[in-house]
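Changelog-adjacent note: as of this version, every example in the card shows the full chain rather than a window. The one below runs 503 residues end to end.
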Amino acid sequence: MNLATALVRSAQINPKKTALYWGENEYTYENILTQTAHVAGFLQNKLEVKPGDRVALWLKNCPEFIPAFFGILQAGGVVVPTNNFLKPNEVNYILRDAGADVIITDCVMAEHLPALQAVRPKLQCLPVEQFATPAMDAPPVNSPERTEADLAVIIYTSGTTGRPKGAMLSHGNLLHNVESCRLVLQTVSDDRMAVLLPMFHSFMLTVGVALPLLTGASIVLIRSLHPPRNVLEEIIRRQASILPAIPQFFRSMVGAPITIPLPLRMCISGAAPLPVQILKEFEEKFHFPLIEGYGLSEASPVVTKNPLKGVRKAGSIGLPIPNVEVSIQNDEGKFLGAGEIGELCVRGGNVMQGYWNQPEETAKALRGGWLLTGDIGYRDPDGYYFITDRKKDMLLVNGINVYPREIEEIMYQFPGIKEVSVIGIPDARKGEQPLAFVSMNEGATVEEKPLLQFVRSKLADYKVPRRVVFLPALPRNATGKILKTALRDLAAATIGKPEPTEG
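Full-length structure tokens:
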């Protein structure tokens, strides 16, 4: 079994069923398979892609993304999903690192091809327009045998610090995670998955693309996110039942004047931490669950989920998904008990094979069969896991551990706050001190002094930010994660100023 044969098996059950909705267009499973075979044949016969060759996929969300993804796999290749927001020099780094000599893109992004070929002269391009409407004389496919152990995807980490690393995910890794997600989300063939996040991201590749297609369900690919009401209108029109998104989107749903019932049976929050305040307001307004989970690219990516039925704990990332183990360990690899804070570690068939061409980084990330996530947290007595912060983001104030997320959760409770991110800044006397970056809701007025007084009433004095810097919006990457590196750069420029910057 591999991902390509799994799609074929799914399509054979109901070939005429709509697999993908895109605006006014509908694509059946039969359509998807035909286009997939066309891509595979073109890669094999025209571009001479061999089993194991890496093929970059540089596309915005569009129907062609799906047959391109599965077509690479059917040809025996390895997919390198590439962030469509990247500039050519950033893409060049990924192409060079992955050793990819073929790229699938569209005619708009193909304008960057000369800049890419200037660094990688042998680079060949397959424009998606060539297989959007497969010709009758599509080249034949000779599908090589690929097993669950074979490499399927190299997905590059977001690179918020330093150069991105390529997490190697096998066919088995992804199939394992799809099956675990199917069980925990109780996904059935009648489901329709609303997809609005970028499909190049591991969260969408597994939950938004592979999960519905390999379970015989359907994808509602949102054509336009602007204005935001387009998303909800399309969800209603196509009767989508599951919506995976990021916390900012659910924040916007809370603030939107939604007066008619939505067809959704659940929403899933991923890719970034879900503030407790947003969860509280969402559940007060809507009558279906918003489930927070946790994952990372290196784990294909889903690791934990709050249960669909049963106790869902606010602020918790939930319980391990089926057939995945989670533990809290200290730096020496000792397993810690309930309530003890340490590094969250993962073990299971979803854990990556390692980082592409980076054995030293692989050795740092994998210890005794466990994936070291770099996230700090704890397990409560009921077995629910909580993330307190990123290991690298932890502050030491007078030698005491301070976790930015704890401060952020408190600040989110203050009226008018839209976004918060806390970083550490050097302090000659205390070692480090917290610095908060805040953006406000439209029309809201927030002042630094009462905000910090509010935080001081909730937290120990040493956890209270030294200052608050107000910004119109916090910098984020394409998947919604706040770029703390950009905030640190900004802090370096503002730290010496006597008054906080307002905006």
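Structural remarks: Residues 394-494 form a domain with the GMP Synthetase; Chain A, domain 3 fold (CATH 3.30.300.30).
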